[in-house]
Design brief:
The chain is α/β, with parallel strands linked by helices. The chain contains 23 helices and 23 strands. It is flat and about 145 Å long.
Length: 785
C-alpha cells in the first residue's frame, strides 16, 4: 500500500491511537508497524483474531498482560556468554510469570467459550517455572541480590555486618570524646571510597593519624580514616570484594540458565507480543464502537452507518455507503460546503483499517473488499518546491494513478478537474472517470462541476450523490444522499444573507433554461426524499402502535378465557354444593318416610323411593374440567381442511382452520386471534359452508412478535440481544413449541452471542443450527420446554 496514500488518509493517526491501547513495549512495537495487508486470507485471519479478542474482553472485561518486557536483547547476550544484570534477570522472571498467567487465563477461558486462536497461542507458551523460581530466589523486585542466593553470600554479608558494627563502634567512641567537638568539623561518620571516615579540621590532621581520603571545597575539612580503624576497614573491604565475586558468580550462573532456554524465551516473547497486539486492537475497536466487517475479494463495499474514526463520536455524522454491487462509481456533486472530503476519507480509512485487521466504525453486517491498492488524490496538492500549481500537482497524482489502477483498486478523487478552466476541467474529469471505470476499479469522486450531474444518469454502473445542505442554518448536515445530485445553493444563501431580490432575479435570468430545469428537478427530488423519509417514520410509528395493540389484545383475550374458565368452574362447584346439600336433605326425608311406613303402615312402596332418589341424583350437575394438553385419540383423527370448525384442546375453545402451514400444523382463527396449532391439539367438530375468515386485528410487519422467525441480520449485538429477549417472551406467551432465529453467517459474533443467551434461558430446552433447507448455520432453531 502506498505510503503517500496512507498519509493522505491519516492512517498514521489511527496507528497512534492504537498504540495507546498496548500494554507492553512488545505490543507497542507491533502497533507502530501496523500496515494493511493485500492478501485476502491474511486479512480474514487478522479479523478473526481481533474478533476473538473482542469476545474475550466482553466476557472477562480485562486480560492479564502486565509485567511483560522486551527481553530479547537480554536473552541474546546471555546466549553468547554475557552476564545479565540483576534488573535484567528480574525482567526475564517477570515476563515468564506474565506468560504463565496468560496461559492459565486462556486455559480457564476454554471451559467457558471457544477461543481456538488464543488456544493455539497458549500451546506455544512453554512453562519455565524453574527458571523463574531460580531468579526470584536470588534477586528481589528492586534488582538487589538476596542474602539467600547462596550460603557463601549469606556468610559473607553476616561478616560484613559484624565488621561494620565494630568500625562504627570505634568511630563513635572517637567522635564522642571530649576533644572531638574542637577537632571535628561535624560529629558524624561518613564514607569515602567505600571506607569509613570522619571530618577533621585542617589544623588537627595529625591528631588521628591514618589516611586522608578527601577534603572539602574550602580545604578546611579533611575526611580522614583514623589509623585505629585502617585494619578493620581493610578487612571489610576484603569481604566486600569476596561478596562482589560471589554476586558475579550467582548472576553468571543465572545468565547461563537463561541461555539454556533461549529458544523458549524467544517464542514466549513473540507470542506475548501477538497477544498484546490482538487485545490492543480489540480495545481500540471498543473505543470507536467498531464492529467486525465481512470481508470479500469481489470489490463490494457496504458500510452501514459508517463514521470517520478520527472525529469524536458525539460530533460525527454516520452515513451508509454502498459500492461495487449495482454501481461501481459514485460521483458526489454540489458546492464546496463540507462533508464530501470526509466521506472519501471515511471509505478509504475504513478500507485500510479492515485490511490491517482492525474493526471499523460501522454497524454489524458492514462489508469491505480487500484491494491490492488504494489510490487517493485529496486536498490542496500545490507544490512550491516543484513550481507546480494546484492543478498540475493533482494531474501528477492522477497520471500516477492511471499508470497503476486495475480492477482490484479503490480510487478516491477529491474535486476532480479543479484548478483550471471550468469547461476543460469538467471534460477532463469525465474522461478520467471513464478511463478508471473501464479498468474495473471502484471509484468515489467529488466535484462541483454541474456537467457531471448528468454523468451518473448517462453511464451504467455510475450513481450520483450529494451532501445535504441546510439553507436555513447556512451549514451542511454532512448527511450523504445517494442517488440525488448536488445543487447550487448560491441564490438561497445570498438571499438569506441579505442580497437584494432584484439582484438575485437578474442573476437567475443569466442562467440557461436547461440549468434552471435541472436545479428545479434536483430540488423536487430532495423534497420527495424528505417527504418519503417523513412518511416512513410515520408508518414505522404506526406499526409499533399496532403491534403493541395486538399484543395487548392477545394478553387480554388469554386473560379473558382464563377468567371465564375459572368463573365457570366456581359456578359448577357452587351448584354441586347446593345440590349435594339438597340430596342430603332428600335422603333424610326418605329415611323419615321409611320409618313412618314401618311404624304406621303408610302406603309408600320401596321402588317409588328408589326412583325418587335416582331422579334427585340426576339433577346434580357434572363437573367437567378442561385438561390442558389433552390430546385426541389417534383413531378419532379427521382429515382437516380449511374452513373446518375445530376445538383447540389446549385452550378449550372453538375456532376455524385458515390454512396449513406445515405437516401437522395449521393457522387457526379463535375469536379475534390467529395462532398456530398442531393437529394433535385439535378436535374436529364439523365442516360448515365455505366462509371467509378474517382476523379482526392482524398486524404483519418485519418484527411481528408472534412470527415463527426473528430476523436479526444487520443488527448491532446489544440491540439484537434485546430483541431476542422480547421475542422469546412473546413466543412462549403464544404457546409455540419451536421458533427460528435468523442471525446470518457473517462474522459469527452475533450467532455466538445469541446462542449463549439462549443456552442460559430457563425456558429453552434445546438449540440447534438449521438444516440445509432451513438456512444452515445462518439460523438457530429453538425448542422450548
Amino acid at each position: 500500500m502506498h505510503q503517500r496514500v496512507m498519509k493522505t488518509l491519516e492512517f498514521h493517526k489511527v496507528r497512534d491511537q492504537l498504540v495507546e491501547h498496548t500494554s507492553s513495549p512488545l505490543g507497542r512495537e507491533k502497533a507502530q508497524k501496523l500496515a494493511p495487508s493485500v492478501d485476502f486470507a491474511e486479512v480474514s485471519r487478522l479479523q478473526e483474531e481481533t474478533d476473538e479478542a473482542v469476545k474475550v474482553l466482553r466476557l472477562k472485561g480485562n486480560v492479564p498482560l502486565g509485567g511483560i518486557h522486551d527481553i530479547r536483547p537480554h536473552v541474546k547476550r546471555a546466549q553468547i556468554g554475557g552476564t545479565l544484570s540483576p534488573l535484567e534477570l528480574v525482567q526475564v522472571a517477570s515476563t515468564i510469570h506474565a506468560s504463565r498467567q496468560m496461559r492459565r487465563f486462556i486455559e480457564d477461558l476454554q471451559g467457558e467459550t471457544e477461543v481456538p486462536i488464543l488456544a493455539g497461542y497458549a500451546e506455544g507458551i512453554t512453562v519455565l517455572a524453574s527458571l523463574e523460581e531460580a531468579i526470584r530466589n536470588a534477586v528481589d523486585e528492586g534488582g538487589e541480590v538476596l542474602d539467600g542466593a547462596s550460603d557463601t553470600l549469606r556468610s559473607l554479608r553476616q561478616q560484613m555486618r559484624a565488621r561494620e558494627a565494630r568500625v562504627r563502634e570505634k568511630l563513635e567512641g572517637m567522635i564522642r570524646s571530649s576533644n572531638a567537638q574542637k577537632m571535628l568539623s561535624d560529629a558524624i561518620i561518613t564514607i569515602r571510597n567505600d571506607r569509613f571516615v570522619i571530618p577533621v579540621k585542617q589544623e588537627y590532621r595529625g591528631h588521628y593519624g591514618g589516611i586522608i581520603h578527601d577534603q572539602s571545597s574550602s580545604g578546611q575539612t579533611l575526611f580522614i580514616e583514623p589509623q585505629a580503624i585502617v585494619q578493620l576497614n581493610n578487612e571489610l573491604q576484603s569481604i566486600r570484594v569476596n561478596e562482589q565475586q560471589e554476586i558475579e558468580r550467582i548472576l553468571s550462573e543465572l545468565s547461563s540458565l537463561t541461555a539454556d532456554h533461549y529458544d523458549n524465551l524467544r517464542e514466549i516473547v513473540m507470542i506475548l507480543a501477538e497477544l498484546d497486539f490482538m487485545f490492543a486492537k480489540a480495545r481500540y475497536g471498543s473505543r470507536i464502537k467498531g464492529s467486525k466487517p465481512i470481508v470479500n475479494a469481489e470489490g463490494r463495499i457496504s458500510l452501514i452507518k459508517a463514521r470517520h474514526p478520527l472525529i469524536p463520536i458525539d460530533e460525527v455524522v454516520a452515513n451508509t455507503i454502498e459500492l461495487g454491487k449495482e454501481y461501481t462509481t459514485i460521483v458526489i456533486t454540489g458546492p464546496n460546503t463540507g462533508g464530501k472530503t470526509v466521506t472519501l476519507k471515511t471509505v478509504g480509512l475504513c478500507t485500510l483499517m479492515a485490511q490491517a485487521g482492525l474493526q471499523i466504525p460501522a454497524l454489524d453486517g458492514s462489508e469491505v473488499a480487500v484491494f491490492d491498492s488504494v489510490f487517493a488524490d485529496i486536498g490542496d496538492e500545490q507544490s512550491i518546491e516543484q513550481s507546480l500549481s494546484t492543478f498540475s500537482s493533482h494531474m501528477v497524482n492522477i497520471v500516477e494513478i492511471l499508470n497503476h489502477v486495475n480492477n482490484r483498486s479503490l480510487v478516491l478523487f477529491d474535486e476532480l478537474g479543479a484548478g483550471t478552466d471550468p469547461q476543460e476541467g469538467a471534460a477532463l474529469a469525465i474522461s478520467i472517470l471513464d478511463e478508471v471505470y473501464s479498468r474495473g476499479a471502484r471509484v468515489i469522486a467529488t466535484t462541483h462541476y454541474p456537467e457531471l450531474k448528468a454523468y451518473g444518469y448517462n453511464r451504467e454502473g455510475v450513481i450520483n450523490a450529494s451532501v445535504e445542505f441546510n439553507v436555513e442554518t447556512l451549514s451542511p448536515t454532512y448527511k450523504l444522499l445517494i442517488g440525488v445530485p448536488g445543487r447550487s445553493n448560491a441564490f438561497e444563501i445570498s438571499k438569506r444573507l441579505g442580497l437584494k431580490e432584484s439582484v438575485i432575479e437578474t442573476a437567475k435570468s443569466y442562467i440557461g433554461t436547461d440549468s434552471n430545469e435541472v436545479e428545479n428537478m434536483i430540488a423536487s427530488l430532495e423534497e420527495s426524499r424528505r417527504q418519503a423519509e417523513r412518511d416512513r417514520e410515520e408508518a414505522s410509528e404506526l406499526l409499533k402502535d399496532a403491534e403493541k395493540l395486538h399484543k395487548d389484545l392477545q394478553k387480554q383475550t388469554a386473560a379473558y378465557y382464563e377468567k371465564k374458565e375459572e368463573l365457570t368452574e366456581k359456578a359448577k362447584e357452587k351448584a354441586a354444593v347446593i345440590v349435594e346439600k339438597a340430596k342430603e336433605e332428600a335422603e333424610e326425608v326418605i329415611r323419615e318416610l321409611r320409618r313412618l311406613r314401618l311404624e304406621k303402615g303408610a302406603e309408600i312402596k320401596e321402588h317409588e323411593l328408589i326412583e325418587a332418589k335416582r331422579r334427585l341424583g340426576e339433577a346434580a350437575p357434572e363437573l367437567t374440567r378442561a385438561k390442558k394438553g389433552s390430546k385426541a385419540k389417534a383413531g378419532d383423527r379427521h382429515p382437516f381442511k380449511p374452513g373446518d370448525e375445530v376445538k383447540v384442546l389446549t385452550f378449550d375453545q372453538k375456532g376455524h382452520l385458515l390454512e396449513r402451514i406445515s405437516d401437522g400444523e395449521w393457522h387457526v382463527q379463535i375469536g379475534i386471534l390467529k395462532m398456530k396449532v398442531k393437529e394433535k391439539d385439535m378436535e374436529f367438530i364439523n365442516t360448515p359452508k365455505p366462509m371467509e375468515t378474517k382476523p379482526m386485528a392482524t398486524v404483519k410487519g418485519k418484527d411481528f412478535h408472534v412470527s415463527l422467525e426473528l430476523d436479526l441480520r444487520g443488527e448491532r449485538y446489544e440491540d439484537a440481544i434485546m430483541r431476542v429477549e422480547k421475542y422469546i417472551d412473546d413466543a412462549l406467551l403464544a404457546g409455540y413449541p419451536r421458533v427460528s432465529i435468523i442471525h446470518g453467517k457473517g462474522t459469527g459474533a452475533l450467532r455466538q452471542g445469541v446462542q449463549e443467551y439462549l443456552r442460559n434461558h430457563r425456558s429453552v430446552k434445546k438449540i440447534r443450527f438449521g438444516d440445509a433447507g432451513e438456512g444452515g448455520t445462518g439460523v438457530t432453531v429453538v425448542e422450548f420446554k
